[in-house]
């Protein structure tokens, strides 16, 4: 039996289902006008397409809780536009199309463990760790005398993603990157 969610249970991050499609609440506000019925002004994101929608729901509306499961899997390889993953317990393999990865594709390095989101048994999304250590493959050398405080230069990571780094970072260095913002955090000392 599926769980029923009432609008009184709405909170940021809550997952619910409308017309066989899973959504996640981005923000909400309970509104009690002086005249008329109470309602909930809601912004919610499709967990499959990423599209953000806005709608007012009547207070007391009911929704189903989606059949969602999150599993830890290991990234194996990329083939065309599909990214292949393996469950390390059952050795079951699955793939996620590139559009289902979002910004996570910028940080996909072979053999990392990621969280795969499944909806009704189908992989729909990937969450990478909050920080990752990645090697710089292309970077211009810092110019001597260019000592402006906080000066940055572009550097290409082993995944192909370009991040701005301080001038003292060189090609071959390993850096820690925040995968949520895509920003440089620190250099990793070997």
TrEMBL record:
One of its GO terms (biological process) is peptide biosynthetic process. It is found in: Cytoplasm. SMART domains: EFP, Elong-fact-P_C. Its main location: cytoplasm. Residues 132-187 form the Elongation factor P C-terminal domain. Pathway: Protein biosynthesis; polypeptide chain elongation. GO terms for molecular function: translation elongation factor activity. One of its GO terms (cellular component) is cytosol. Gene3D superfamilies: 2.30.30.30, Nucleic acid-binding proteins. Keywords: Cytoplasm, Elongation factor, Protein biosynthesis. Residues 70-124 form the Translation elongation factor P/YeiP central domain. Involved in peptide bond synthesis. Stimulates efficient translation and peptide-bond synthesis on native or reconstituted 70S ribosomes in vitro. Probably functions indirectly by altering the affinity of the ribosome for aminoacyl-tRNA, thus increasing their reactivity as acceptors for peptidyl transferase. Belongs to the elongation factor P family. This is Elongation factor P. The gene is efp.
